[in-house]
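Quick bug: Glycosyl hydrolase output formatted oddly.
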Amino acid sequence: MEHRDTAETGATTDQSRPIEDYALLSDRHGAALVSTEGSIDWLCRPRFDSPAVFGRLLDPDAGHWSIRPAAEFHTERSYVGDTFALRSVFTTDTGTVHLTDALALGPTRTAGSAETNTTDDDADRRLLLAAHAPIATLRVIECTAGAMELDFTFRPRPEYGLVTPILTAVPGGVLATGGPVRTVLTSPVDLAFGHEGATARLRLRAGDRLRFAAQTTGLADEPPATWTPEAIDASLTETVQGWQDWCDAHPPWDGPLPHLVLRSILVLEALRYQPTGAIVAAPTTSLPEAVGAGRNWDYRYAWVRDASFTVQALAAAGCHGEAVEFFEFMTHAAARYKPETPLQIMFGIGGEHDLSERELGHLSGWRASRPVRVGNAAWLQPQLDVYGELLDAAWHLRGHLRRLDDTARHFLADVADAAADQWEQPDQGIWESRGLPRHYTYSKLMCWVALDRAVKYAHLLDIEGAAPRWEAERDRVREAIETRGWNPDAGAFCAAFGGEDLDASVLSMAAVGFLPGDDPRLVSTVDAIAEWLRDPRGLVRRYESGTDGLEGAEGSFVMCTFWLAQALALTGRPDRARDAFAVAAACANDLGLLSEEVDTASGAMLGNFPQAFSHIGLINAALAIRDAERR
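Here's what came back:
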């Protein structure tokens, strides 16, 4: 990628930058986004859902940390092996510099069997990444040829840009104090302090190596000491080795596009909050589903909706211990569930229930797409599909769960009872519509899944006496879907009972086993969605415009395109499945990262990034295609 010779204040910097221009860094506590110009424009500390310290992604004044050539330059970038250490190679007319960025993992340790709920030896082999992460960002610059000048700017702005911290010199670096966090920057060069933060013009010749580290602590904690160059090198080596060891501990993928599947598996681990095992849907907030349309949401939380899809993907990748940990997080976070009320659909990554939504009016938003939101009001919505997704996850993990304790057994039984009691109610659906509740077909389908898995699981739950009721209600749900969800004029199961509009979520019918792959109604539904919900690029929209209670139209949904590929494979058409899979996979950026949506006109990324749902879809579609071709 070419970059013109521009001063720091005039560079392509902020919310105008394409989403696909960013790379992900992770220490499994938080995540950073780094641009091709060497700028960290998004970093929340100390957790994924904490306020941003660097937030230029959403406003030019919300903070960044930039290391970029002063002259016109070209960038090539890649991850170091199977890791989240990013290497950016800057080339100018005068030289070449390598910039290596990572969030430090700290020492990696092995999980003991007492720490997990597995029945096999997975726990004894499973590596726990970032259990002792120092909450530090590492940046190492090395000139490999010629000479180069680089502009350095360190401009933290805690609390999403609200706080302009005071910068003071300390031995070996800079201390930034202001707001709820303090950050110590280790710097091997003298820095000037001003309105733009701590700045310097770096001059490197071949063989020169500069090492920087920024470590964040809470206001009540003692500021950490600056790092020695040897400590930064050792931490970077430790981080690279930790990611690679974790990757090597899992079986290699033998299906289509192994490099993208492997990167997707790594993304799920990168988005998995180390202390609890929760997986954030994405590490960002308010990257819009349509520019300027107000469709901006905070995705730094864990959705029950994702449970069964995530467990399938992790299990397919051989990550059984990780899948169990995610499932246990979900059941523990929801443990206060009351059967007479809907199950909460999402939780904070520490298990928090209150995710109240508010707007940050001081931020202009990516490409002026206001409002910027933190929190997510969808936590208050009734969504009946979560019952099926939770029990389906338990079913997929049945061979890896020890005998459940009384609390877990009764909780899962309560979930099945709730599906039996509530399936006839309308809800907001999987896509969290902000319009009127409907009798969504997908919600009914997942209630059927909940009851079906509960019947099959009854002996493991040791409550066989409830199975006859669950079985009877399961049969009633099936009849309702087949009679009220099927629209013979459309030749498809439609979005909602009695409706005529289509919804890509219905593609899940084959994956959950509601109908066999050769059922004519299922084949017809898949074909109808392929014909009417695909955009000119071949990507699938979630649903027809004007049905979600919001103004404007969103982009095409990457996950739904992978669902189409999976459904085509499960209905016996692997060649067409590969074509659809290729269309969706082509949406990844040069590092194999996927966003939530794609602009139907330009093909540019939209929505929060990188999106776990998209990477989960890629893994499960690849699995379905591989199995279909083997058959």
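Actually, after a second look the formatting is fine. Confidence is low (pLDDT under 50) at residues 5-13, 113-124. Closing.
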